[in-house]
Amino acid sequence: MKLVFELGATGRQMSYLPGCDVPKAALPEDASLRENMPKLPELTEVELIRHYTRLSKQAFGVNSGFYPLGSCTMKYNPRINEVAAGDPNFANVHPLQPADTVLGCREVIDTAEKLLCEITGMDAMSFQPAAGAHGEFTGLLLMKKYHEARGDAKRTKIIVPDSAHGTNPASAAMVGYSVINIPSAANGCVDMDALRAACSDEVAGLMLTNPNTLGLFDTNILEITEIIHACGGLCYYDGANLNAIMGKVRPGDMGFDVVHLNLHKTFSTPHGGGGPGCGPVGCKDILSPYLPASLLGEERKPDSIGQVRSYYGNFGILVRALTYILTLGSDGLQEASETAVLNANYLMHAVKKYFPVAYDHVCMHEFVLTLEKTKRESGVSALDVAKGLIDYGMHPPTMYFPLIVHEALMLEPTETESREALDEAAEAFRAIREMIDTDPERLHQAPVTTPIGRPDEVGAARNPILRYKPVE
């Protein structure tokens, strides 16, 4: 497909711009002007429309087909959320308006805080963080401030299980903590003996998500948080997998002191595409004095960690999440989690006939396959299977994560998929399995139905072409 710079011809144009409605200003005399006009594409309107339509057809999203990207919760975003966020009374406000002119926005923030605290078992919440990893960073700053305020500066370590999201150790390092990695036990959950051995008066806290990235709920969770609290640490809940337990159990009731939420995962706001995101952080009362400052219409908190982002966060995303919560209600939110777990177990049982499950237990919202034996016996890797699934009209699952599972494929079907969609996905895995047994070489060529087959991914990463250079 040609780039937009390769289309059109000199002199072609589209609609005229409207007349200037502001006073014209002359450039300063010392302004440095470019010597040549920029080489911009010159196209007719129909050429431009066709170009972007072709591009849109090559992008795969939840509106295109099944998207079981494990750990990412790529689910459908209801249109009613977009209608609410697009209301001019929300969309046209400015963060520097006087507080008494945006009382409706204040009510959105207050209502969202109340409901999300109820869902998570927290006492207070900030919506400033711009995404999940930013929420991790903010939550860890709260923990650090708590220890510093108590004069406990020796606590410089954070415990992170080996099944954690990769952003957990990265966030801890950014805050200045060193990371203690805890291995998983044979059942895929935290090794309790290793956890006890890691605890000391140097531990600031634990970062954990439950269920974990293997899709397993750790039944020792109350003992885990008790062990951390007993050594003087705090417990941080990575809310990425709240989608599986919402309405059933709350992080605050498990013993967690602080939590971040991924609104795109659990509360159906847009995911990916460069943002904007929203990663609110909730905490117990012991940490609330340290929450980010500059809440709308409120005085600054003297012990706050300060602002972690401009203004009040991505307000439009918050409107979408609140719309989703109010539309479903408490019963609907619980049903969403129940359906997410049901769909994951349904698909897991259908697929494990063809590929082994890494930890073959009842899962929560996601599960992990291991193709280690398949690769050893046939030469077909997890990457080959993922590429092959593209030819069956679905997005590949997450590959090679979590790292503790070799040749991993991680699937999360989400609650928004129908039984028919899951059956079609299972049939694709069956067809891939048959191909492995009869003609494995075909999978090394997959995908064959896409505009681009197997690109040189290493070459693209090491020698990216980031600029278009026109032919002179």
Short description:
The chain has 472 residues and is of the alpha/beta class. Helix content is 38%, strand content 9%. It is built from 16 helices and ten strands.
Question: Keyphrases for this structure?
Answer:
alpha/beta; Aspartate Aminotransferase, domain 2; Aspartate Aminotransferase, domain 1; 2 domains; 7-stranded mixed sheet; 3-stranded antiparallel sheet; 16 helices; 10 strands; 9% strand; globular
Write the SSE topology:
Blueprint: H1 45-58, H2 79-85, H3 88-91, H4 103-120, E1 124-126, H5 132-149, E2 157-161, H6 167-175, E3 178-182, H7 192-198, E4 203-208, H8 221-230, E5 234-239, H9 251-254, E6 258-261, H10 263-266, E7 281-283, H11 315-351, E8 367-370, H12 372-378, H13 382-390, E9 398-399, E10 408-411, H14 419-438, H15 441-445, H16 457-462
Parallel strand pairs: 2-3, 2-4, 4-5, 5-6
Antiparallel strand pairs: 1-7, 6-7, 8-10, 9-10
Helix pairs in contact: 2-11, 4-11, 5-6, 11-14
Secondary-structure element string: HHHHEHEHEHEHEHEHEHEHHEEHHH
How would you sum up the global shape?
globular
What value does the average pLDDT take? 93
State the end-to-end distance: 21 Å
Main beta sheet: strand number and arrangement? 7 strands, mixed
CATH architectural name of the largest domain: 3-Layer(aba) Sandwich
Structural category is alpha/beta
Tell me the radius of gyration.
Answer: 25 Å
Instruction: Report strand %.
Output: 5-15%
The helix content, as a percent range, equals 25-40%
CATH topology of the largest domain: Aspartate Aminotransferase, domain 2
CATH class value of the largest domain: Alpha Beta
Count helical runs.
16
